[in-house]
């Protein structure tokens, strides 16, 4: 197997506060291969965005990486100085945020923001940076880019602004793009276009994508592999097709069951009873055990270890472990 | 743009007319000018003759029109107390007040913005805590007390700076300045600090609050995620976004610095318009009081106009002449 582009091992993120320490991410491990699209799904608060923030080095204090390591092409990046990390951000890891309406500085033109970012990472003159900016805008599908580049963000619609954001995230040719719910704030009609654009443009440049979303439909269409997060822990990771068609973790099965289908006649969607635990009260054993229909004694006492399964899959579930031991 | 400026100017003129009405009514309601001018010995016929000569028997509206016409040409009558044209008196005192106001306004703005940015960026530092605590003193102590304390420390105990007056002055054309002589410069230090301290702490707290707000926004996160330097993010992106409210407050504060220089001028026996006003109040010198009222109103109106035009320069979203959101 080729060396992974990004390798996260046992990542642990903590938020110390007055009453103790909250563990927001615990034992997260995954790889992203060059050019691969990894989907990251989970409920709100499962730690999807936090994983992205930890990788790019932008955890909000007092949050901090308390354990594990993050490597980019073999180089450890979680221990770099802030200045060294800054040089990686934008240049080697780009990021697209959720809300294009608030991601752009309202007081600067699109040209100013693009040229500033390009010149931060590339030794280009003002004129060349501008040419590059226009080409990028053109590529992300802004009509009349050469004219529109001098407009302010408020002159653009939401979908167009997200295109500008994508151009900004990609302007220094990063090897990895972290897209944090890039379509959540957009109209349904433009969501598909934006997802396609991200996928296409990253494939074209050989950039890998970490696509954070809670939309399983988007994952199914876009991602090569998918990681399912629950309460700051990795429940399951594997190729998209396998995970969707043959989920091994009861939580993943619940997630899949909650997607409406056109073919299936059903009055009610399947629902997982209960809610995800708060970070301050994660139960012992498996974090999912109080909601799990198939939990047994071991699930309540012992935390499941991630278990390798054939086809590059991993599952953290005692039930799956039992089945594979018997089968 | 032109329509906007015209509209603002028309509004300003309306405000000035209302103030003129108030200032005009001072003459009618604060004592009888004829009694003041002729004393008790004059006969009823003489009084009527004077009343007629001064136009006091005309309809109020005619008198008001005359008052405005004269005021517009700079004629506010003659001071009861000093027997000099009011305009001449005010103009001779104005440079002293304006110099004091500009110096203390500049000090307040520079230190206010500087300290505000510093305390926002180093929110948890001990120095920020100290600055914030000390700034409470600036907000809560009354101006005259600060003035007296400064005089006690720097003029009486340390004897570094003069405690009153303007020092030596030099005439530059019609402008009598104290800034060109060493004693003049030494004299302005204490009054300028006294006058500006409150404004400085106000600006500092405002900049700090706005800056903290802006640093939390998505576009600042996105700017960091693009790997821009801290300097570019903090000063280029964040500070500029805090400026709109800061400009408003600073502008209005400049107005109040001029208007409320009265107290500082009294404490330091500074020969400005504020001191002139205080003396006029003691002698019920209505022409001076009325003219002072008009002058201060004019200053506020002009500053407001300038502030509105500055918004326009800072925030592109207010430039309504361009098409709004083009899709």
Q: In a nutshell, what does this entry contain?
A:
The complex is a heterodimer of chains A (327) and B (327). Chain A has 327 residues and is α/β, with parallel strands linked by helices.
Please tell me about this protein's structure.
The complex is a heterodimer of chains A (327) and B (327). Chain A is of the alpha/beta class and 327 residues long. Chain A folds into 2 domains: 35-61 and 81-230, Rossmann fold (3-Layer(aba) Sandwich), CATH 3.40.50; 243-261 and 269-327, no CATH class. In chain A, 35% of the residues lie in helices and 23% in strands. In chain A, the strands form 2 sheets. In chain A, strands 6-7-8-3-9-10-12-11 form an 8-stranded mixed sheet, with helices on both faces. In chain A, a hairpin with a 3-residue loop joins β11 (307-309) and β12 (313-315). In chain A, α4 packs across α5 (126-139), α5 packs across α7 and α7 packs parallel to α8 (188-205). Chain A starts with 5 loop residues before the first strand and ends with a helix. With 327 residues, chain B is mainly α. Chain B has a single domain (86-318), classed as MetI-like (MetI-like fold, Orthogonal Bundle), CATH 1.10.3720. Chain B contains 13 helices and 2 strands. Chain B has helices at 2-29, 33-38, 44-53, 60-72, 86-121, 126-140, 143-157, 182-215, 218-225, 230-259, 261-267, 273-282, 286-314, and strands spanning 170-172, 175-177. Chain B has a two-stranded antiparallel sheet. In chain B, α5 (86-121) crosses α8, α10 (230-259) packs antiparallel against α13 and α11 crosses α12. At the A-B interface, α2, α4 and α7 of A face α9 and α10 of B.
Whole-angstrom Rg of chain B: 24 Å
CATH 2nd-level architecture of the largest domain in chain A: 3-Layer(aba) Sandwich
User: Helix fraction of chain A?
Assistant: 25-40%
Strand-residue proportion of chain B:
under 5%
GO cellular component, one term (chain A): plasma membrane
GO molecular function, one term (chain A): ATP binding
Family (chain A): Belongs to the ABC transporter superfamily.
Domain ABC transporter (chain A): 8-256
């Amino acid at each position: 197997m080729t060396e992974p582009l990004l390798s996260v091992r046992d990542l642990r993120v903590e938020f110390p506060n007055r009453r103790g320490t909250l563990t927001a991410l615990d034992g997260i491990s995954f790889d992203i291969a060059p050019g691969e699209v990894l989907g990251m799904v989970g409920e709100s608060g499962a730690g999807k965005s936090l994983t992205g923030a930890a990788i790019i080095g932008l955890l909000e204090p007092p949050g901090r990486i308390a354990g594990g390591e993050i490597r980019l092409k073999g180089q450890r990046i979680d221990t770099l100085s802030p200045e060294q990390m800054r040089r990686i951000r934008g240049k080697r890891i780009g990021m697209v945020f959720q809300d294009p309406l608030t991601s752009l500085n309202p007081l600067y033109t699109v040209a100013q923001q693009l040229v500033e970012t390009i010149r931060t990472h590339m030794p280009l003159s003002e004129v060349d940076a501008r040419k590059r900016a226009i080409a990028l805008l053109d590529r992300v599908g802004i009509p009349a880019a050469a004219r529109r580049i001098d407009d302010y963000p408020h002159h653009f619609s939401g979908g167009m602004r997200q295109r500008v954001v994508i151009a900004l995230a990609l302007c220094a040719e990063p090897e990895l793009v972290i897209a944090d719910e890039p379509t959540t704030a957009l109209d349904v009609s433009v969501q598909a276009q934006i997802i396609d654009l991200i996928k296409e443009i990253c494939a074209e440049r050989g950039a890998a994508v970490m696509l954070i979303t809670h939309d399983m439909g988007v994952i199914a269409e876009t991602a090569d592999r998918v990681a399912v997060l629950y309460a700051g822990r990795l429940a399951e990771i594997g190729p998209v097709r396998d995970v969707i068609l043959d989920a091994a973790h009861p939580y993943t099965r619940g997630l899949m069951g909650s997607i409406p289908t056109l073919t299936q006649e059903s009055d009610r969607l399947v629902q997982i009873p209960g809610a995800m635990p708060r970070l301050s009260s994660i139960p012992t054993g498996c974090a999912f055990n109080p909601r799990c229909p198939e939990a047994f004694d071991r699930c309540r006492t012992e935390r499941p270890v991630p278990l390798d399964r054939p086809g590059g899959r991993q599952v953290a579930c005692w039930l799956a472990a039992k089945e594979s031991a018997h089968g | 743009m032109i329509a906007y400026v015209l509209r603002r100017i028309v509004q300003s003129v309306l405000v000035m007319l209302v103030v003129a009405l108030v200032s005009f009514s001072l003459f009618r309601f604060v004592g009888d000018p004829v009694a003041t001018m002729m004393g008790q010995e004059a006969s009823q016929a003489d009084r009527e003759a004077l009343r007629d000569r001064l136009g006091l028997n005309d309809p109020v509206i005619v008198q008001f029109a005359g008052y405005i016409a004269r005021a517009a040409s700079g004629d506010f009558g003659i001071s009861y107390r000093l027997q000099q044209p009011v305009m001449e008196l005010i103009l001779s005192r104005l440079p002293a007040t304006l110099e004091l106001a500009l110096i203390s306004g500049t000090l307040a703005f520079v230190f206010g913005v500087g300290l505000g940015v510093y305390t926002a960026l180093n929110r948890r530092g001990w120095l920020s805590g100290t600055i914030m605590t000390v700034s409470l003193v600036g907000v809560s102590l009354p101006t005259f007390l600060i003035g007296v304390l400064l005089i006690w420390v720097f003029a009486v105990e340390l004897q570094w700076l003069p405690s009153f007056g303007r020092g030596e002055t030099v005439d530059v054309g019609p402008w009598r300045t104290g800034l060109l002589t060493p004693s003049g410069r030494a004299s302005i230090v204490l009054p300028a600090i006294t006058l500006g301290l409150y404004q400085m702490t106000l600006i500092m707290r405002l900049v700090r609050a706005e800056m903290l707000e802006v640093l939390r926004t998505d576009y600042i996160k996105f700017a960091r995620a693009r790997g821009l330097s801290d300097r570019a993010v903090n000063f280029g992106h964040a500070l500029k976004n805090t400026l709109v409210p800061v400009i408003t407050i600073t502008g209005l504060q400049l107005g109040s610095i001029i208007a409320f220089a009265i107290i500082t001028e009294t404490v330091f026996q500074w020969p400005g318009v504020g001191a002139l006003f205080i003396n006029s109040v003691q002698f019920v010198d209505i022409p001076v009081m009325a003219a002072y009222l008009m002058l201060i109103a004019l200053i506020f109106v002009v500053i407001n106009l300038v502030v509105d035009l500055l918004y326009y320069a800072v925030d592109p979203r207010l430039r309504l002449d361009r098409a709004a959101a083009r899709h």
